[in-house]
């Protein structure tokens, strides 16, 4: 590997699966390259707004951890859910997650930050108005389940619009 100076990776269909997440195997391979000093270059035909959305996700995650470290952050990527924090059964019940619902897959923070979430779910963060003030130009933020769950999604996604159109 010492002769390799850089690896160029396509995202969709190569590094990322059909659900837009990176598999643990691909993640580990890329991490080994990076840890070995090999430059990782991402080549994507995605529009700049997709890259901006990933950056906003990182900023939101950092903002929440800075202001409410006890919060539990889940990333939804299509129909899969990921978290860095194991959630006990009693917390699941407190957050309104039924025991029959699938539990989020616990991953490390590097893996989580590699994901491009379709939705960010935050449990235990009551100051959700701060998220609106900070990121409201980029995302929709709603509090549900009596304010226990904050849902953050792309600006074009809105439960209110779907509900009104239904």
Key structural traits:
166 residues, two-stranded parallel ribbon, six-stranded mixed β-sheet, single chain, alpha/beta
Folded structure, characterized:
The chain has helices at residues 24-35, 48-67, 89-94, 109-114, 128-135, 159-165, and strands at 6-10, 39-43, 72-77, 80-83, 105-106, 119-123, 139-144, 149-154. The protein has six helices and eight strands, in the order βαβαββαβαβαββα. Strands 5-4-3-6-8-7 form a six-stranded mixed beta sheet, covered by helices on one side. A two-stranded parallel sheet has the order 1-2. With 166 residues, it is an alpha/beta fold. The protein starts with 5 loop residues before the first strand and ends with a helix.
